[in-house]
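Example record used in the benchmark description.
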Amino acid sequence: MRPKAAIMALFRERGMRMTPQRERVIEVLSRAPAHPTAEDIWKAVRTDLPTISFKTIYEILHELVALGELKQLNLGTGSSRYEAADLNHHHFVCVSCGEVSNSDENPEQAELPQTADGSFIVTGVEVVYRGVCSRCQAGRTASEVPAFNT
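Model output (structure tokens):
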């Protein structure tokens, strides 16, 4: 994400007030671990703004997505996750604990498929690798780790 001052200026340019709630969400996002959920952000913001609603958090997150500052990720973990819009990579998702981590693979280097008649233009690629993280593997035997089915 861009610095807080730049995001605040973007809100103002669009005629939107910079409220304490928006400011606090931006601060939390700038220090949040990778891929926080709306609930993670809500819990962190509530330490300073105990009356803030979950709905307000969602509204601010959706504003930041609309402004192009955040990407909303649906990784099949039950909750949307968020990350800076300027990041471009694939993701690993642990099917056991739900941990999400980044792949070093760059989607922009992938060859994009096209329809034979050119009637569909691919504008983006999202790949999610599912498996078992090292932490979850540590407590399992080899037969307990799910196999990849093709």
